[in-house]
Amino acid sequence: MPRTGLSPEAARQRATEIAVARIREHGFSKLRLADVAREMGVSHAALYAHFRDKAALLDAVTDSWLADARQRTARICEGPGPAVERIEAWFVERYRIKSGRVKSDPEIFYGFNEATAGERPVIRDHMALLCSELTGLVEEAGLGGRAEAAMLDEALTAFLHPSLIAPGPDPDREAALRRLVRVLLAGLSATRS
């Protein structure tokens, strides 16, 4: 089969885009490397130069899906305002991203959920970044460090774990998340006084 004429990075990007489109059209479980290769105009074997297996391609899909989330949480971390307010905004944004995506992009979200359950490296890296962001905000707010950030994240799992996200943003659920974040932050603040 012919070469694509794309650089290795561009070929990876194109394969990822095709995989995303195929997942949306046919479902996460029906993605096949052979179909992606055919649509790219390369052999199945040629695609292995870019992705060692289907799991690696799915990791690339998940990573591309998470890129927007990383930008959105980073903007909050780097933004103006008191760190305590940005902690609340950071958790609310994570909830909005996931609850919005489960409704607007259910097959890709299903893949993200599967990657989370399988503890894929792309998810571990993403979680490490989130931990670093939250730790930075907690430190900036003077509420502790990594241990307190981990406690906050664990306490809010019911709002953020992919398996527990309800379809679409729920204003009542978001309000409950805000209340719980405020209670937890008040508790951390009280222990620092």
Folded structure, characterized:
This protein has 10 helices and no strands. It has helices at 8-26, 33-40, 44-47, 54-78, 83-104, 106-117, 121-140, 146-155, 157-160, 171-192. The chain folds into 2 domains: 1-52, Arc Repressor Mutant, subunit A (Orthogonal Bundle); 65-192. With 193 residues, the protein is mainly alpha-helical. The longest helix has 25 residues, at 54-78. 76% of the residues lie in helices and 0% in strands. The mean pLDDT is 92. The N and C termini lie far apart (69 Å).
Distance between the termini: 69 Å
C-alpha Rg (nearest Å):
19 Å
Structural class: mainly alpha
The ordered string of helix (H) and strand (E) elements is HHHHHHHHHH
Number of helices: 10
* Count of structural domains: 2
Tally of strands? 0
Mean pLDDT: 92
* Percent of residues in helices: over 70%
β-strand amount: under 5%
Pfam families: TetR_C_27, TetR_N
Protein name: Transcriptional regulator
DNA-binding region: 32-51
Domain HTH tetR-type: 9-69
What topology emerges from the helices and strands here?
Elements: H1 8-26, H2 33-40, H3 44-47, H4 54-78, H5 83-104, H6 106-117, H7 121-140, H8 146-155, H9 157-160, H10 171-192
Pfam family, one: TetR_N
GO molecular function: DNA-binding transcription factor activity; transcription cis-regulatory region binding
Keywords: DNA-binding, Transcription, Transcription regulation
Keywords:
Arc Repressor Mutant, subunit A, 76% helix, Transcriptional regulator, TetR_C_27, 10 helices, mainly alpha, DNA-binding, single chain, DNA-binding transcription factor activity, 2 domains, 193 residues
